[in-house]
Amino acid sequence: MAFDDFLEDAKLHIETTGRDDSCETPNVRAYEPTSYSVLERVLEEGCISSGDHLIDYGSGKGRVCIFFSDRTGCKAAGIELVRKFYEKARENLRSYIKNSSKEADIEFFNEKAQDFELPDTASVLFFFNPFSHKTFRAVMKRVTESYDRAPRLIRLFFYYPENAYIAYLSGLDHVMFYDEIDCRDLFSEEDDRNRVMIFEIG
Predict the structure, then answer these.
(1) What is the pLDDT of residues 117-152, one digit of tens each?
(2) Burial of 195 (0-12, 13-18, 19+ CB in 10 A)
């Protein structure tokens, strides 16, 4: 089932629709939010629950964090390098809290993903191709360090996965492929990359 992103934004009292490539560089991807249809399908798989601590890398205007927190009650944090998107995410969070009857344990950080020290409670990591392969490798080093400090199950979600990301993960002994969520039927144009690949550590 396809969702109207503008309508879903309105339900959450946030504004996250539209593509913005004004800050795009070789290391920073254009802003393009994950469709609510895709997020809903991920939710239907039952891989994210109230006890999880979700981290969204390249969190943009905050859609992923706010959506999953609203629907599951999970703790969430977004990491966003571009200042104007980070500020909009904070504005969206204030609007969501003000107009929602639910409590939300959500925070956003304006910093480089490779500099962010992953909390040892983080259990779900979400990526929509937010940065270069080089940055991704540095982020995975942080993930491994966190796991070594506090061994636990960590699930990594990759929407519209890049081959370079997947090839790198496939070469890591401590990372295993878990599942794939097909999202091709949610869109009018056929695209084999319209899927979510899930990997596990631990």
Answers:
(1) 999 999 999 999 888 889 999 999 999 999 999 999
(2) middle
CA 35 to CA 33: how far, in whole Å?
6
Tokens of 137: 């490798």
Q: Domain range for residue 148?
A: 5-201
Condensed to tens digits (0 to 9), the pLDDT of residues 36-53 reads: 999 999 999 999 999 999
Tally the domains of the chain: 1
Q: What CATH number is given to the structural domain containing 173?
A: 3.40.50.150
**pTM passes above 0.85:** yes
The answer to whether 15 and 6 are in contact (CB under 8 A) is no
Listed residue (15, 64, 6, 40) closest to 186, CA to CA: 40
Angle between helices 63-72 and 36-44 (to 10 degrees): 40
Query: Which pLDDT value is given to residue 96?
Result: 97
**Of 160 and 23, more confident:** 160
